[in-house]
Design brief:
It catalyses: DNA(n) + a 2'-deoxyribonucleoside 5'-triphosphate = DNA(n+1) + diphosphate. This protein is 57% helix and 10% strand. The chain folds into three domains: 136 residues, Rossmann fold; 72 residues, Helicase, Ruva Protein, domain 3 (Orthogonal Bundle), CATH 1.10.8; 126 residues, Up-down Bundle (Zinc Finger, Delta Prime, domain 3), CATH 1.20.272.
Length: 351
């Protein structure tokens, strides 16, 4: 079964009884972990229960393919249904998962936790087509999804948030769902937790509480890159690498920015007034970065933006398919983009 995006959360909270194995995959590692844990909690309340939870890593099953079936068939010493989680699942586990699905023993739920699998992935195809399996994709949250997570999380404590504060916080988050939730939880604690009911989060609250996130944000790196400020962009890239950040979210952050530039640039080229063109952006521009963004619109004509988007797509494909170091690939494309910005001539007319 292929689970659509609008059903993903509902299915994770209450999976189909016919699904004996559920593949959770995608580039948003935090959302993959979150949904995998939700699935597991539909069977067991304590994920660290050694009698009812078997936690396997990919290398174990590759070395012993029968291990998956053996763990699924095992009975809990304390009674109750069991969960088998396979971390780092990939196409090298397809045969083991297929053998399980052909004649699944016992009643355990098997949760397959994977990274970003391509459409041609054999494991993904197996779980999407099997009647007793399911596949859930976990992609990075767009602006509206991030805003919904923030508002809902604050709303559980009776806390509201001012529009400009929501814009700022949403603009800094989205590449990892668990990072988003952690930052919102930090904000709730800052506001007073249960005692904050009825309060409204302001822009000052965001800057005070999430200031460290803003200072290291992907958006700051992306803005510097589009400005042609290669030294700042490369310095931030190096810092992200040192922190262990995957390169794919960084590339996609830059891609999102240039897609927004492309949208506004295209609208202006078709005669829309500047304010109407900017109003097309969702989420809307944060007011402090709007002048900088509009300067970039004047600097980057639509055709040149398209070329940058092609470069970013090629870089992402290279990161996924070659043995080269991801950092080197991204650093190289950053140099190309910043150079293109520096030699570009701003249009004489525009917003």
């Amino acid at each position: 079964m292929k689970i659509s995006a609008d059903r993903a959360d509902a299915f994770s909270n209450r999976p189909d009884a016919k699904a004996r194995a559920v593949l959770v995959y995608g580039p948003d590692e935090g959302l993959v972990r979150e949904r995998a844990q939700r699935l597991m909690r539909t069977v067991v309340s304590e994920l660290n229960d050694p009698f009812r939870v078997a936690d396997l890593v990919g290398s174990q099953v590759k070395n012993d393919p029968a291990l998956l079936i053996d763990e699924a068939a095992a009975l809990s010493m304390t009674g109750g249904r069991r969960v088998v989680r396979l971390r780092d699942a990939d196409d090298g586990h397809t045969k083991a998962v297929q053998a399980f699905l052909e004649s699944p023993p016992g009643d355990a739920l098997v949760v397959l936790q994977a990274g970003d699998l391509a459409a041609k992935s054999s494991l993904r195809k197996l779980c999407e087509s099997a009647l007793n399996a399911a596949a859930i994709a976990c992609y990075m949250d767009d602006g509206q999804a991030v805003e919904l997570v923030i508002r809902d999380s604050l709303g559980k404590f009776g806390i509201s948030i001012a529009p400009e504060a929501l814009d700022l916080m949403a603009s800094q988050l989205g590449s990892d769902r668990q990072v988003t939730r952690a930052e919102v939880e930090k904000l709730i604690t800052y506001m007073g937790g249960p005692d904050a009911r009825g309060l409204t989060v302001t822009l000052d609250d965001i800057q005070a509480c999430v200031g460290d996130l803003s200072a290291l944000s992907m958006d700051d790196m992306t803005l510097a890159l589009a400005d042609g400020d290669d030294s700042t962009a490369q310095a931030m890239l190096d810092r992200f690498v040192a922190e262990g950040q995957s390169m794919i979210p960084l590339l996609r952050s830059v891609t999102r920015h240039f897609l927004r530039l492309h949208l506004v640039s295209g609208a202006l080229a078709h005669g829309k007034p500047a304010e109407q063109a900017v109003a097309l952006l969702k989420p809307p521009l944060f007011f402090k970065t709007k002048p900088r963004f509009m300067t970039q619109v004047r600097r980057w004509p639509t055709q040149r933006i398209t070329q940058v988007l092609d470069l970013l797509l090629d870089a992402e494909m290279d990161c996924k398919s070659t043995g080269a170091r991801e950092h080197e690939i991204v650093s190289r494309v950053f140099l190309q983009i910043s150079h293109a910005s520096r030699v570009a001539k701003p249009t004489p007319s525009g917003p």
